[in-house]
Design goal:
The chain is mostly loops. Helix content is 7%, strand content 6%.
Length: 244
């Protein structure tokens, strides 16, 4: 077992490249600390304040981060494979390029988080809040996002192979360059979503969901050739759609 630093106050401390493998850090104050490239595999960080902490390039494989406060933390390039992040606060966090393979993020707050180019293969994000999150070029293969809030999220060239988005809220989401074949969208809300170069053929949709998806597609098609306030036009290839 690792070191016991329970209840220690390490706020603002520079712990770059520190080996804290299996350490008990529960109750520790680590906000604004620097833990870049540190080893925290299997460490207990449950409920810990890691807000504004620099964890860039750190290894947190299998770490317990349930209910931890990681708001506005730097987790770019961090290894979070199989990490437990249930009910964790990751709002505004930078997770670009992070590896979250098989991580558990149930009920986590990822609002306005940057998940660009992150690997979320097999991750569980049921009922998580990803409002305004950036998922550009993220890999969500085999991920589960049942009932997840993706309001106004950006999904540009996001890999969604066999992703479960049933019951997800994609209201006002920006969906660009996506292949939704095999994606479960049963009961998902696409109200006011912007779809551009999106292939819906092969997506799993109930009759009612299909009608809603067709409406969202038609709404985007009607704007084709016209400029929006953001200066973008919406173009969908009808040949890629199977709405019959």
């Amino acid at each position: 077992s690792g070191a016991d630093l329970n209840q220690a106050n390490l706020s603002g401390t520079n712990l770059t490249r520190t080996n804290l493998l299996g350490a008990d850090l529960s109750g520790t104050q680590l906000n604004q600390a620097i833990l870049a490239r540190s080893t925290l595999n299997r460490s207990d960080l449950s409920g810990v304040d890691l807000s504004h902490t620099d964890l860039a390039g750190a290894s947190l494989i299998g770490a317990d981060l349930n209910r931890a406060n990681l708001s506005h933390a730097n987790l770019s390039g961090t290894n979070l494979k199989r990490a437990e992040l249930q009910r964790a606060n990751l709002s505004g966090a930078d997770l670009s390029g992070a590896d979250l393979t098989d991580a558990r993020l149930l009920n986590a707050d990822l609002s306005q988080a940057n998940l660009g180019e992150s690997n979320l293969t097999g991750a569980r994000l049921n009922r998580a809040n990803l409002t305004q999150a950036n998922l550009t070029q993220a890999n969500l293969q085999d991920a589960t996002l049942m009932g997840t809030n993706l309001t106004a999220a950006q999904l540009h060239s996001t890999r969604l192979t066999a992703t479960n988005l049933s019951g997800a809220n994609l209201t006002d989401a920006d969906l660009v360059d996506l292949d939704l074949a095999g994606v479960n969208l049963t009961g998902a809300s696409l109200d006011q979503a912007s779809l551009r170069n999106v292939a819906l053929q092969g997506a799993i949709l109930g009759d009612e969901d299909l009608t809603k998806a067709a409406s969202a597609v038609q709404s985007s098609l009607q704007t084709e050739g016209r400029q929006t306030e953001g200066g973008q036009s919406f173009v969908i290839d009808p040949d890629l759609l199977d709405l019959s």
